Automatic annotation (TrEMBL):
PANTHER family, alphabetized: P-LOOP CONTAINING NUCLEOSIDE TRIPHOSPHATE HYDROLASE, PARA FAMILY PROTEIN CT_582
Pfam families reported for this sequence: MipZ
Protein name, UniProt field: ParA family protein
Domain of life: Bacteria
InterPro entries on file: DNA_Partitioning_ATPase (IPR050678), MipZ (IPR015223), P-loop_NTPase (IPR027417)
Signal peptide (from-to): none
């Protein structure tokens, strides 16, 4: 009998865009930790950005930072006691093997009840392997920045995915959601509003939550800055969460993607 958590029933959420440096990995990292540690969503990370492996390397930096600091070891021990959870798995694989590697892991670790796999997709879509991996997602979240040149390339990617996948019956992808990132405090919101209309007209999804541009997004465990925001071992700390919109983003995704969030 198939269980709710077997390899075919988990949700695949990809972070994708052909635009480099737009925030795919950063948002995936912060959001994954928030969903896992705070919302108890059982997830697995598949880093398929073979050129950089940003997510996988963040885990390695986290690990090294903890190994080298007794203060961080204490902090983490207290965190594990509080959340009752050990860290989630971060796997890496080449794009053409990513789905297989994730599914094998899930079927070999059924007790982990993984219901979501987050794919950090490579920042390109110029080969059939990369495009077909994107089309194998259930949902793609595609960050955009309110900068005209960057919007054009972000929209082009989303429209390609929509044309090739969302509109074709029989493909796995259900929707691609655009999401404003690096929103400056005093930005003229008219650009975003006019593109919001265009996004809708193209039949693309749009997340209501916009993420602000903030130095918090670079505050890692290894930096010892006091507040931790971006870590694979813990969710952003309470004082860091304020005005980051990460809680709003997590709640919005739980609702629209019907993620199974357990209250502990
Ligand atoms: N909301 C934000 N505020 C400030 N800085 C941000 C924000 N989001 C991302 N950044 C920064 O932007 C840079 C690029 O982010 P990131 O590596 O996540 O992009 P990417 O889309 O994954 O890039 P690539 O295509 O190279 O994989 C990083 O230095 C990151 O810290
Ligand atoms: Mg990246």
């Amino acid at each position: 009998m198939k269980t709710e958590t077997d390899a075919t029933t988990h949700i695949r959420v990809g972070f994708g865009s052909q635009k480099g440096g737009i925030g795919k990995s950063t948002i995936a990292e912060v959001l994954a930790s928030y969903l896992y540690y705070e919302k108890n969503i059982k997830l697995l990370i598949m880093d398929c950005d073979y050129a950089q492996h940003s997510f996988y390397r963040l885990r390695e930096r986290d690990k090294k930072a903890v190994e080298e600091s007794t203060a961080l070891q204490e902090k983490l021990k207290a965190y594990i006691r509080k959340t009752g959870k050990r860290s989630y798995r971060v796997l890496k694989a080449k794009p053409q093997e990513a789905i297989k590697v994730a599914e094998e892991y899930i079927s070999e670790h059924q007790e982990e009840e993984i219901s979501v796999v987050i794919y950090d997709l490579p920042g390109r879509s110029d080969s059939s392997d990369l495009l077909s991996l994107a089309l194998e997602m259930d949902y793609i979240i595609s960050p955009i920045e309110a900068d005209l040149q960057s919007i054009a390339s972000c929209m082009a990617y989303a429209i390609t995915i929509r044309d090739m996948g969302v509109m074709l019956s029989g493909s796995r992808i259900k929707q691609i959601f655009m999401m404003w990132n690096k929103v400056d405090r005093r930005v003229n919101t008219r650009i975003m509003e006019s593109y919001d209309k265009e996004i809708e007209e193209y039949g693309l999804g749009l997340l209501k939550t916009r993420l602000p541009r903030s130095v918090k997004f670079s505050r890692e465990l290894s930096m010892n800055t006091g507040g931790v925001f971006r870590s694979t071992y813990m969710a952003p700390e309470k004082d860091q969460l304020a005005e980051s919109n990460i809680e709003e983003l997590a709640n919005e995704l739980i609702e629209i993607l019907s993620l199974k969030a357990y209250e502990q």
